[in-house]
Amino acid sequence: MNQSFDTNRPPYGIIAVLMIGAFIAFLNNTLLNIALPAIMAEFKVEAATVQWLTTGFMLVSGILVPVSAFLIQKYSVRRLFLVAMGLFTVGTFLAGFAHIFPLLLIGRMTQASGTAILMPLLMNVMLVSFPVEKRGTAMGFFGLIMMGAPAIGPTLSGFLVENYGWRMLFHFVSPVAVGVFFIGFFLLKDKKEHVNLRLDKISLLLSSVGFGGLLYGFSSAGNLGWQSPVVFAPIIIGGLSLVTFIRRQLKQEKPMLNFQIFKYPMYSLSASISMVISMAMFSGMILFPIYVQTLRGISPFDAGLLMMPGAILMAVMSPINGRLFDKFGGRILAITGLTLITVTSYMFSNLTLETSYMTLMLLFSIRMFGMSMVFMPVSTNGLNQLPKRFYPHGTAMNNTMQQVSGAIGTALLITVMSIRTQTHATNLGATTSPGVVTPDPIAAGDQLMMLAMLEGINDAFLVSVYLSAFALVLAMFIKRAKPAEDPIEEVEVNKELNPKLAEN
């Protein structure tokens, strides 16, 4: 039995508390991106290793989010919120005091275990609370809150990292997280009837090995190369486990994650587009700070200022795009947004060491503007086609696919960057005349590696161009979705109206 609310009077108090918690989780993620170069320097790790702070976060989310559909159906909003914020808070304290990189990674993954529950929970409450014709506007304001974190995150992060060090990012968030936990403890009062659901442990094992194996394999490729058994063995095992998991879910009467939602075409299309864009977006969030700070030497604070206009634009446009979605549907928004993303990604694939600060700010802002027109409208349109009983499964599947595709995309593009950097370094070294003696060979070598890394980043961005162009083609098939008829829900309604049917 799903948690239900009266759509004539949505539970604004519950939604507000959930949004505050989600805002803190989003803020923490955006704070960390600017700090990656500083963390690389302190712990003496490479880009392929530091990416685990992002990929590891997505790895845990990819394992736990599928379980959220079961949790949402079984437990109350209050109980799930307190568990989620509790885990997030513990992870924040752990990461803030980490003295070695593995401990920092464990803290991030503990944070992820809380966020993995929190985001599907909030999305499900939003879907149940608002009718279809008002959902775009509601999701738009939800986007305003969620995009407010990226708006202030990079600049705040730059200021904290530059003046107090990267640990302050976690010390700053931890007391706020504690406060939000107690707000939820005292204000959330919803109750839930006892639901007779049991978690299928075999399904949980298959899901964990499946999604976890895929994420681990792809994420290890940046360090070890695709030919390593540590890379291809987890991918093969994960793929086989995932196939077995899907077949098991299709046979169960009450599956942990219901794959029948993919029989609804608009939902399947929206999930596909979101996955492709997640691959491009998450990878860009790592590549861009490396270029700006490592290659260009721009300070963390100035790097944050560079990203702020784009994030503010994305936040402001969220409610506007929500209203446009209610009026015109998702197709025109998605096509426009994906066109902007494709063009700006191509511009980012032609970066130089002399590209101006204002040019970078403008391109990043236009890219964020395009992102604001894609994610929320596309996912809302897909979820709108699902019958009500599939909402927990739809939101869980969306979050799972985005986390998995984001991790795969990040690993893929970081691998492209690493491999192409080595190739360009070899080629640039070969073009240097062997008889020429340079006054400062160390400086010349550093300059060569900078040029090689620049070309590697450009090549990685070029891959994201093809990804966003593919999503653009898919967006042309979007149609405005309406809730599909559900025979099971119709039978339940008829039983309520006619008790004699229930006896039979």
From TrEMBL:
Listed NCBIfam families: efflux_EmrB
Membrane topology type: Multi-pass membrane protein
Transmembrane segments: 12-32, 52-73, 80-106, 112-132, 139-160, 166-187, 199-218, 224-246, 267-292, 298-316, 328-348, 360-379, 400-419, 460-478
SUPFAM superfamilies linked: MFS general substrate transporter
One GO MF term: transmembrane transporter activity
CDD domains: MFS_LmrB_MDR_like
Keyword Acetylation annotated: no
Protein name per the record: MFS transporter
Subcellular localization, as worded in the UniProt entry: Cell membrane
This protein's UniProt keywords: Cell membrane, Membrane, Transmembrane, Transmembrane helix, Transport
Domain Major facilitator superfamily (MFS) profile residues, every copy: 14-483
Record-linked InterPro entries: EmrB-like, MFS, MFS_dom, MFS_trans_sf
UniProt xrefs under PROSITE patterns: MFS
Principal subcellular localization: membrane
Record keyword Methyltransferase present: no
Recorded superkingdom: Bacteria
Family: Belongs to the major facilitator superfamily. EmrB family.
GO cellular component, one term: plasma membrane
